[in-house]
Amino acid sequence: MSQNIYDRVQANPKFAELVKKRSSFAWKLAIVMLVVYYSFILVIAFSPTTFAIKLGEGVTTVGIPVGLGVIIIAFVLTGIYTQRANGEFDELTRQIKEEARSEK
Fold it and tell me: Where is the chain membrane-spanning (predicted)?
């Protein structure tokens, strides 16, 4: 990419909007994941008997489905980010690229 196009992209207000929206959204999802993960770790550290409670007559404890829930939440948050990235963020990127090319 030539320096001229690079400068036009950076000067585009839609580029600043894209960076702001994408960063804000990514940080919100990261905070949600960190809260979930560290809550899980804190329960393990300070109340290990909570996750040791057996479910039914077998060997499965409360910790197993909670741990799986943490993993599932990570996948769901990734899906949410991907969906928004493929929609709103890609559309803004397309508009920025078109405007940069048309200003030649």
Answer: 25-46, 58-81
Structural tokens at position 101 = 């090319």
- If one counts the domains in the chain, the total is 1
pTM of the model: 0.81
Q: Which of 57, 55, 56, 74 has its CA nearest to residue 65?
A: 55
Helices (H), 12-103: 13-46, 48-52, 63-84, 90-102
Q: Does residue 14 register a pLDDT over 60?
A: yes
CA 93 to chain centre: 18
Q: What is the DSSP letter of 58?
A: S
